[in-house]
Structure formats: C-alpha cells, structure tokens
Write a structure and sequence with these properties.
heterodimer, A: 273 residues, 0% strand, globular, B: 292 residues, mainly alpha, 75% helix
C-alpha cells in the first residue's frame, strides 16, 4: 500500500468512529423505543428482543402527536410564507427608494438582529396577552414576522442590490405597475435567496421553544412543546419517552433528506451574512 | 423622480406592514422593557404607579444567584467556544479530504443541528442517566455508575458535551465553506514551492479563511451565551439550581418567582453584554477585511 492510501484508510476510519459517536444518542432512542420498560432497565444498549409498536401507540396518544404535528406545520408554513412575501417586498422597497431615512431604517433593522429574545419576553407577555387571547396561532405567526423580518430582509436586500435598475425602468416604460414589476420580474429572480430564507426560517420556527411556550395553550401546542409536556410526565416510562422523542425527530429528518443540498447551502449562506 | 403621493402609495404597498410588525414586536417591547425597569410595573398592561429609580438594578446585582448564574454562563461560554470550534474545524478538515464517504460523514455531524435543543437535551438525559450508568455497572467503572447529571461539576461537562455535539456540525459547514473558498492556484503555488500539508494549512489556508473563523467564533459566543433550550431539556437547571444559564435564570426570576422588575433588569444587563460582544465582532471583522 502506498502512503497516500494508508492515510486515506486512517482518515476514513476516524470518520467512521466519529460518525458512530455522533449517531450514538439517536441509536439509543431508536432501539429503546421498541422495547418494554423491563428490557430497557436490563440493558439499554441491546437490540430489542421482539419489536413492539406499543410504545408508539401510547406516545402518539399521550402527546397528541398528530394534533401537535398539524399545529407545527400550520404555524411554520404560514409564518415562513408571510416572511418571504413581506421581507422580499420590504427589501425591494428599501433597495430602490433613495433617501437617508430609508438607509437609517435599514440600518436599524440590521442592528436589531443582536437583540436577544430574553430582553423582550417579559414586557411581551404582559403587553400582548389581549392579542394572544384573540387567536393564539395568528398572534404567533404575527410575532414571527416581527422577529424574523430583519434577517430575511437583510438577505434579500443584498441580492436585490445586484439587480440592475434598468430592468425596473424597462418594465415601467412598458406600462407595468410597481406591483406587477416586482412580482413578475424581480421576485422570480430572487429564487435562490427565497430558498435560503425559507429554510433558515423554517428550521428556526419549527424548533422554536421559548416564544411558543409563552404564547400557546395546550390545545395549540407545537411539536417541541407537546414533546416537553409529554417527556415531563412520562420520562420514567422509558420506552414511551423514547418513542415520543423519535416521533418528534422524524419529520425534520425526512425534510432534511428531501432537501439536503438546499439546507446545507441555505444554512451556510445565512450564517455568512 | 417619483411624486410625493406616488411614493407614499409605494410605501403603503411594500413596506408599511413589515415596519408595523417590526415596531410592534421588536421596537416597542424593547424600549418598554428598558423603561419599566425604572418603575414599579407589575407585569400587566402598560401602566405603573411610580418611578423607583435604580431599585430593580440594585436588587438584581444584590442577588448572589444572578452572579453565580453569570459566572456559570461565562465558564460555559468559554469552554464551549474553544471545544466547539476545535471540533468543528477538525470535522471540516476531515470531510474536505477526498473520500467517497465524506458526504455521509457530513450528514452525521450535521444532523444534531436540525433538531430542537429541548429534544436534544431529553435524548442526552437518557444517555447520561440510563446508558452510561449501565455501561459503568457492566464494565465495573465505579465513577460511571452515578449519572453525570447528579453532580453540579459533572453536570457542567454534560452540558458542554451536548453543546459541542449540537453546534459543531453547524460551525463545520462554515469552516467547509471557508476551506473551499481558498483559491486553487494559491494552493498549487504552495505545492510547487514544496510546502508541507501542515504548512499549507497553517500558513496559507487558515489566514485566507480568517473570515470563517470570526463568523464561527462569534456565532458560538452568541449562541452559547443565550443558550436556553438544551439547558431546559438536559438539566432543567438542576441539581439545586446549580446549572442555570443566564437565560433560564431570567426566565425563572420572572415567570416562576414573579419578580418581573428585577427579571427585566437582569435581561437588560444580559442585552448589554450581548451588544458589547456584537460591537467587538463588528470591529474585528472590519479590521480583518481591511487587511485583505
């Protein structure tokens, strides 16, 4: 064997070992979700003696799984769609409207990204209780627009600035209104940013815990919240708890395997802002 | 040029709603919260009876639990910052080696990042409480038979382990982007000049991808300083409130014990720290950009 081949072998082995270490917690969740409690107590790392779906039946019922899944989907889809529409338009407006005032307001948006949610949450709960009582889910979507608009607008703004203005002007000469110009000509060109914006916001909103825990009551719980409630009550029922965690993980993993490339590039585009 | 009326209608169509949402959700609570720390606000609505000066801040700084939480958070941030980035950079080097399986490795390292922190915390709670202890009993390691989560010192390390596992995949992606952004001809020139691989990495690749380091370091700094979800899922602050990161401390102060004024004062202090971190970041990345 040449040195290069030995080296590659070594690197490969290290990769396999590390992958196993990273996957180990998931492996534990997977094998134990099929086992009854006694078997887990006897040996938590062994494969199940016989597969049983009993834990899953229990977990689905007790954590109200399908209700929570629907709630999560509803909130995520509405909030992400709204963020895409609203931020792309705002970014277009800010990139195309001259004036110092608009530059300052764009700067304020960007600067607001450093504000931690903890600095807002206490007045938030006291002040917007009445709004939340009208409709918890609609308020939550509205809150996500307010919290998410800065980053999304920032991402769109960078891209729109590279689109030549002549394009807008040509459309205006052809008699298109600014609305038509934006939706027919500019917005389709933004597709790569839209993918980034959609993925970053979807991952954030899908996994968010603190804000919805302050806003939602039990029948509207999203998946992280219902998992939290369920695990708190049944963490001693190890098999059921593991089945519940597995159920909570599965949707996002499926999402990842469908959109793997877009997610990885979206995540890096969003980070390198 | 646009007429005044036309530009107003443009504003209404394109910008009014997002500005409104931003003002309602971010701007107003931020100033309201800061303002109320100087009053005896009871947490409901937007009214208060009297100004109390700096009382809330005095109470906050007189609370030893707040200081120990800040200290705990500081230690957690420093240790996580170092370990996350060392691990993430090593992983990035590993998966940018030309191997057929590097894509699969990347997926394994990245997946923890997709899942919410509370759920990750719960998963590891089981790992620490059940499976490590079972290993300990089997293999006869006395020190493994009690869970790491039962003791404040080892619970700290448990928290760090989960944080590294969670964040390193994300930072790895940033380092991969950095490593791949180094231009091929520079590397070829180094190869022709006979530079060893370590030297190429140390003297050429790492300086040229300096931006990836600043981004990743500050993201880790911010994320670990504001960490909440993993803390809730893994330790819940226990044993005996010894592992409360500052986020959880503020949450408990306000919503568990009902001290909204001091809770908000602590939140303002936390915001000030985050703002300083962000300003330092801007200054450093500006300087790095000038050098290039």
């Amino acid at each position: 064997m040449t040195r290069a081949r030995i080296r590659r072998r070594v690197i490969f082995t290290v990769g396999v070992v590390l992958s196993a270490v990273y996957a180990f917690p998931f492996f534990l969740v997977l094998v134990n979700s099929f086992k009854p409690k006694v078997e887990i107590l006897r040996n938590p790392v062994a494969f199940p003696v016989e597969f049983s779906w009993e834990n899953f039946d229990q977990a689905i019922r007790k954590m109200n799984y399908f209700q929570a899944l629907t709630n999560s989907l509803l909130v995520t889809v509405f909030a992400v769609t709204a963020l895409i529409l609203v931020s792309s338009m705002l970014a277009y407006f800010l990139a195309r409207t001259p004036g110092r005032g608009w530059q300052v307001s764009f700067f304020v948006l960007v600067a607001s990204m450093i504000v931690p949610f903890q600095a807002l949450m206490i007045p938030f709960v006291g002040t917007y209780g009445w709004l939340v009582n009208l409709s918890e889910q609609a308020s939550l979507v509205f809150f996500y627009i307010g919290f998410g608009v800065a980053l999304s607008t920032f991402l769109y703004h960078g891209f729109i600035s590279t689109i030549p203005r002549e394009l807008d002007e040509a459309a205006a000469i052809d008699g298109a209104t600014d609305f038509v110009t934006f939706w027919r000509i500019i917005f389709p060109m933004l597709a790569p940013v839209t993918a980034t914006v959609a993925i970053i916001n979807a991952l954030w909103i899908w996994n968010d815990f603190l804000l919805p825990s302050l806003v939602l009551s039990q029948e509207n719980y999203t998946l992280p919240l219902s998992t939290y409630l369920f695990y708190g009550q049944y963490s001693r029922e190890f098999g059921q708890a593991m089945a519940g965690l597995l159920l909570a993980i599965v949707p996002i993993i499926v999402f990842y395997f469908f959109l793997q490339r877009q997610i990885v590039s979206g995540v890096s585009a969003g980070a390198v802002k | 040029m646009l007429g005044r009326k036309k530009s107003f209608s443009r504003f209404m169509k394109f910008a009014a709603f997002p500005f409104f949402a931003f003002a309602v959700v971010m701007v107003f609570p931020l100033f309201q919260g800061a303002f109320f720390t100087f009053t005896d606000w009871d947490g409901f609505g937007v009214t208060f009876d009297s100004f109390v000066g700096l009382d809330n801040y005095a109470d906050a700084s007189a609370d030893p639990a707040f200081w120990s939480s800040l200290l705990f958070t500081g230690q957690y941030v420093v240790v996580s910052l170092i370990l996350v980035n060392v691990v993430a950079f090593s992983l990035a080097l590993l998966v940018t080696t030309k191997l057929r399986s590097s894509n699969i490795f990347r997926t394994f390292f990245f997946i923890p990042n997709l899942i919410g922190g509370v759920i990750l915390g719960f998963i590891w709670q089981f790992v620490f409480n059940r499976s490590f202890t079972a290993f300990g009993e089997r293999l006869g390691f006395e020190s493994w038979t009690t869970s790491m989560l039962n003791d404040p010192d080892s619970a700290f390390w448990a928290l760090v382990i989960v944080t590294v596992w969670q964040m390193s995949g994300y930072m790895m992606i940033i380092y991969i982007t950095g490593l791949l952004s180094v231009e091929k001809d520079v590397l070829e020139a180094a190869l022709i000049d006979g530079a060893s691989e370590w030297r190429t990495l140390w003297n050429i690749k790492m300086p040229l991808m300096a931006q990836a380091f600043t981004i990743s370091l500050f993201l880790t700094l911010r994320n670990s300083f504001m960490a909440y979800d993993v803390n809730v899922g893994l330790t819940g602050g226990g044993p005996f409130r010894s592992t409360e990161l500052v986020s959880m401390h503020i949450f408990n102060e306000a919503f568990m014990f009902g001290y909204l004024g001091t809770g908000q004062a602590k939140a303002v202090i936390m915001f000030a720290i985050v703002a300083v971190i962000a300003l330092v970041q801007v200054a450093i990345s500006k300087r790095a950009e000038v050098q290039r």
